Amino acid sequence: MSLFIDIHVLQTLPPSNPNRDDTGAPKTATFGGVSRMRISSQAIKRAVREDFEVSLEPSLRGVRSKRIPLLLKKKILEARPEIDVSTLADMVSTIITWTYLGRKDPKDKRKFLNEVKADPERAFKEVDALWFVSNAELDSYVDAILEDAEQENIEKAFKSRNFWKNSQSGDQSVAVALFGRMVASNTDLNIDAACQVAHAIGVGAIEHEYDYYTAVDDEKRQDEEAGAGAGMIGTIEFASATLYRYATINVELLRENLGDEAVTQEAIKLFVDSFVRSMPTGKITTFANRTLPDAVLVQVREDQPINLAAAFEDPIVAKGHGFAAPAIKRFVEFESQLRELSGMDPVSSIVSWTTPRGADFGTLKKAQVSPLVKLGEATVEAVRARATNE
Length: 390
What we know:
20% strand, 12 strands
């Protein structure tokens, strides 16, 4: 039976600009007929990944880059520092050909290999798109190519390992397992994402504001003959909002991607804790806008993931008393009514809050209360409990 973990967060941001559009303004989305502050899912996932990866052992980390050939070169040289450039280029190009380029037209692959023969440095140039790969996969490729270097035909030996025909389940980094991977040149390396992250949106209409600032030229101030004008003048656009944030994890798919129950549970714990406590850091030095969530609801479900953004389709109007308190009240009412009208109850619910106004989350049906710092651990316990009861 499928198992999903839904994470719902209400969080208030002071004046800030954590995620900018191409004009430098805070990103927005129209919802319920009004413009809302928005933080893109891509920015959220990046912040979450940067937060949890520092807690992982190196083999469970990953890297997303066009410069994977240079990483392979570095790893091979660490193992065999005496290797000549031509052999090194052959090794790296063979790995790239029979992993990243695996499903490319044979003519394209042969062209690439011939280019490397003519110019060994070609092997170390960037690939044509970002490649998300785990440290464990990179180590597997390097260990294999070093073994195959003893064979008469290094390319044939490496190809026969069939790295290019499968996604190496069990060698995935936590980030790849959660967020997925798409390799256009070799779809056999694709990984379905076990996690979905929504764009965070404000619970009410956005009010754009502008900070007009000046910067003083320290040396100019010492010159009595210089003008009194500023050394620099500019504007920064910003806004404030109470945001609704949502993410969901497909537990079975995450387990399949990682191939290990203990690592799966660790990934759930780290993701939950990082999702509720991390935030994109755009303009952070200007606004110092790091906050904690007002309130969090985590639900373990067997039916389907349910995004509760519809609670705020009718925008909250602050009326001089703020957005957070009415948003929390609205959310609790909406969640309770959705349960009653749909007949769809979660397996378990865990709530946490960091301000007195968030205490309304404690009235949610059959909700277990957890401190924010223990939320990931409590979620894993709920998943374990469900497995025990099956």
